[in-house]
Structure of Malate dehydrogenase:
Amino acid sequence: MEKSPIRVLVTGAAGQIAYSLLYPLSKGDVFGHDQPIELVLLDIEAMLTVLDGVVMEMQDCALPLLKSIIPTADTDVACKDIDVAILVGAMPRREGMERKDLLRANVKIFKAQGESLDKHAKKSVKVVVVGNPANTNAFICKKYAPSIPPENFTALTRLDQNRAQAQIATRMGLVPQDVKNVIIWGNHSNTQFPDVRHAKVAGKGVYEAVQDDAWLKGDFIKTVQTRGAAVIKARKLSSAMSAAKAIGDHMRDWWFGTKGDEYVSMAVPSDGSYGIEKGIIYSFPVQAKPDHTYSIVQGLQIDEFSKEKMTTTLTELQEEKCSAEEFCGY
Ligand SMILES: NC(=O)c1ccc[n+]([C@@H]2O[C@H](COP(=O)([O-])OP(=O)(O)OC[C@H]3O[C@@H](n4cnc5c(N)ncnc54)[C@H](O)[C@@H]3O)[C@@H](O)[C@H]2O)c1
């Protein structure tokens, strides 16, 4: 018997990340090849003609799992009865743009979407925020949706994890899947801390395998932290294909669970683990179960080097939280 469809909202649906995301999402790569989907596509009024073109292309893909497509510019219509919300829509960061300007522009979008999710979405809705500043947007969205469990609000740091895995793999002449348990701590920004202290490559600790502590504590971290800016500089557009791939990885692992004792990085509301202020959306190592629950991996040893870096990115998130609350008119 066919499963009943799940209703999946993608915002910013006329944008470049959505263009790379909608096909794999609708053909079963994220929620399974036996899971029918109803797609809800939200963008702003001015982009509705472009969105029509996206809808036409989705229809022309003739995908068996895609049961319906609802394009809209109305947030309340978009949030109605949804099971999953992939919140991509935001003003993208352009070359040279300050993070605070971006925060001011985007935080209000996520306040409105939080209120709408609160009123119209299923209480079990799983939310991943992609639009930057992703962690703080997710914090605001959660704040304005008090009837939905806080742990259902997450932000994307999987792209940073994938970037870190790829850097190590390239260095070792391996593929990224040979590198396990890389952690991204903190904010999806250049203060994030890509940590390989607990990671394994081909069964060995990464420090032991790479044999270059200076690189692991220096250029490796810097490269991952600034990769988004490097892509913008080269492409004149922010990462889209790799962001779409990471969104799929994040949602698939949350939906189906992580493998064995492996963990992945997701920005989730802190429960106070590792001394991180409760409620802040901070990227942690997490393990997920097939019932769509997840937990923060406990008991990892944190050395002084890591502690300092984890605090720097926390401080940035605390500052962003204060600014966001101010912009929302608390
Ligand atoms: N977290 C990550 O890892 C990560 C990675 C890459 C990009 N991003 C961020 O993702 C966001 C989208 O990037 P993109 O390249 O697709 O940008 P884009 O400009 O191509 O598309 C954004 C779309 O969002 C729409 N939009 C704007 N306001 C909206 C609203 N209120 N409701 C619905 N839609 C709205 C725009 O009209 C546009 O179609 C940006 O904020 C970017 O910085 C995050």
